[in-house]
Predict the structure.
Amino acid sequence: MLKMISRFDIQGFYSIADMVKRYQLQLVAKRISASGDGHYYVLLAVVLLLFHSKGQQLFNLLLTSFAIELPLYVLLKNSIRRTRPCHCFQGIELAFEPSDKFSLPSGHTAAATVMATATCFVLPVLGVVFVLWALFIGLSRVALMVHYPTDIIAGALLGSGSVMLAFNYIS
């Protein structure tokens, strides 16, 4: 079973990385990835808090969700300590240097999934857009060669699970 997962990870990693190189999508992937940086979540949450009738509800859900997700992310990343693919394989040129050495789970994907899942609970129509955006964030992290596909899956599970726990807690 672990061999199958490992094979899936390596094949998925190289398939996405090769496609990005073939179609010269590195800059697009880098910009998509950057759109998942933390300050954008704060900005969006504050804008919705100030200008949308359900902004307070979304803000509270996001705050509680990130309070669950972030410590779990740090604990998992530093406990599992999976080396990033860009540091495992020869000949990989990075567009940037990742902030740490470890890849599992993907923090960008976890955070984007928190944003998407919370938005789905409170503003379902907008949530659909955020789900697609979170999917692209995850793909961009593999495209930039800093994550394996299972890192993305783990990040998405962490993010959505954190929102579900938070939603049950504050409801």
